[in-house]
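ingest -> validate -> predict -> emit
validate: passed (alphabet ok, no gaps, 144 aa)
predict: started
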Amino acid sequence: MTLLSAALTGWLAVAPPERAAIVVQAPDSPVRLDRAMVLQGAEGPPVVLYSATNLTDAALEEFTVMAFVFDANGALKARQVAPGRRTLDAHGTKYSTLVLDGSPIEPTYAVVIGVNQVQRAGSEVWWHTDLQPAAEAAVPLKKR
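emit:
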């Protein structure tokens, strides 16, 4: 029993702590993000792991994800756009990550992510939205 307890304690020390990221989405977004988790290892920047699902009947050539980092009082500390994610089949789902290397992130900070641009396959037109108002509404400023 002691060996099992020691092994479990060792595993928990190595496993990166995780916490949910807040997902925001425009009502007409062609892509939905799900299962967004912030993973923080002992070294290196935090990483957001998420799944992205194409809500349309058409293949998507590219989409971009934006992250907002808010401090414990709800003040915006950083914004970061991930490099474009390529090829998402009609109604398909894929997993991807976003490395949050723009600024230090404390355990009390909130991370908010969402899709801000999408381009359909074979088109030069991009769908886009401003996610910052939705992100700020998801993490309101706290009175001091």
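Helices lie at 2-14, 132-138.
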